[in-house]
Each structure stands twice: as C-alpha cells, then as structure tokens.
Fold this protein.
Amino acid sequence: MVRLVRLQRIGVCTIVGCLLGTLLAFPGSEAVAADASTWAMFLAIVPLDSAAIWHGWFEGQQRWQLASFDASQTVLRTAIGRNLGSDADVWAGYAWVPVYRPRPRREHRLWQQAQWRIERFVLRFRSEERFYERAGGELRLRFQARATLHVGGVPVVLSDEVFAIAARWDRSTPLGYEQNRLQLRALLPLVESVRLELGYLHIHFRNGAMQHVARVSVVYQPR
C-alpha cells in the first residue's frame, strides 16, 4: 500500500510539474486568440506473433478546423513494437503527414518510442525525425505522463505531454520548448477489443497561442 501511494504521488507530481513548466515557460507571452479543432483517429495495435511479444501499430488521423470544418492535417502512422516484459515496450516506425492549412506541406517522419507502466501510471518518451519536402527537417522530442482514474466505473485518462525541438537542419525553427498538450479522455468499451475514446485536448504553443481540440478515437487492441 505504501509503495502504491508513493507511485501515485510520483505520477501526479510528474503531470503537475509538466503543467507548471508550461505556465512558467513564457510568462511574458502576449495573449493570442485560441483556435478550435476536431481530431478523429482510428488506431489498431495488434499482435504479430502467437506469444504477443511483437506488435504492429496502424493509425490514421484526420484533423479539421472547427469553425469551417476544413481539413487541416492528416496523420498516417505505422510501427513495429516489442514488449519488454509486462511493464515496458519499445516502438519504431514511420508516419506520413500532409498539412493543408495554414501553409500546405508534406512531412515524412521517422519515430521511436519507449513506454513504461507503473501501476495506473504510464511514462512515454518519443523521438521524431521530421523531414519536410524541400524545407529541411528537425528532431523533436516528446515526453508524456498519464494516469488512469475511474469515475463512476468509467476509465478516465489524464495526460500531459511536453514537446521540444532538439536539433534542426536547413530550417530556422527555434530550439527548445515547442508546445504542451494537456488531455482528458473517457474510455468506453464498444465490443470485445474495441473501445471508443472521447476527450478534450488543450494545446499551448511557444508563442502563447492556444488550441482547443475535441477528440474522437476508435481503438482496436486485442489482448
């Protein structure tokens, strides 16, 4: 029991620390009008062998501006992952990301991920090598902490993720903090191995701009 309480405190403190870091990162930023979007996602994480050690990741996302419902971005992401025991896994994959607004561009992205589970808490580290067609590239690092709670019998996930630009080539992108994503979502089972996720995502950008996102996801994950 004592160990569980300590782990809970570590998870909560990590999330709170990320939030405080975001709020203090740019205290002098000018207020910028918030944007609103809708993101829809389908994600399938499926075993590739009978022992369920190797897994495949197949993800498709479509993002729209809420006011006009114009498509702003598509994300097609795939990867192969390996379980490292029952509490950790690693992934490596590729993503194709065409952006339509505000400036059209296409991005090819290599990504790697490591994830650790500690009771009801998950810590995730992801690195992304982003290559823009005829526009250079950059290395982006992401750290996410999330906790699963139960509210009225419904699993609810609270997460916070910090993004930072670690390196760049043929681009003038500022190094350091890029954005922070705070998210709350409910997990609703539909049928066996399939769940619906409904949530709200708040994004804070380095220039002080904010984005409010309504998220709808369908996840297929056989056990």
